[in-house]
Amino acid sequence: MEELIQLIHAHIHHAHFIIFSALLLAGLNIPVSEDVMIFISALLASKHPDYLPHLFMAVYLGAFFSDFISYCLGRFIGPKIFEIRFFANMVSHERISKIHAYYQKYGVITLLLGRFIPFGVRNALFLTAGLGKMNFIKFALSDLLACTISTISFFTLYFHYGESVIIYIQQANSIVFALAFIALGVFWYRKKRAT
């Protein structure tokens, strides 16, 4: 990560374009971490306050439009997306099925809470919303709210506390992921028992 920070720091005048572009690639399931991009943006903004608005808007809009790319892939390409080996290897049918079941039961709350879960869960959420033909306006408004809360929260934490807060964020992410996994397990178990 240090090399990436140095690269972007060396091109600070174009950092916001680099970060925005990298996040758009994440929407195509290319392994670009949104969390790392937020961290780099906030760290650079703390060292170069003149670039703060550009860096924040790049990471915020990049994250938001990245979600739309995943949603549109699911909505307009649909299940055919799994015929493309690149996507089939990135997101399993099992994960999509579990998330779709969660959408059926909890709706928009799935999107709002799922926005805070890393490890590729976010893209699976947005792809599943598209595959399930979730209403576009409903998706857009829910994602706008979730993206605003998560981006502002993490950017502010990283901006003020930098690397010292990373360990706590990673622990919190692990806890959220574990809780979501347990909730999905309980939901799946109850559904199996009911049938």
UniProtKB/TrEMBL annotation:
VTT domain residues: 36-154
InterPro entries, A to Z: DedA-like (IPR032818), VTT_dom (IPR032816)
Membrane topology summary: Multi-pass membrane protein
Signal peptide as annotated in the record: none
Entry's transmembrane regions: 12-31, 51-73, 139-159, 165-189
Domain of life: Bacteria
Record localization: Cell membrane
Protein name (Swiss-Prot/TrEMBL): Alkaline phosphatase
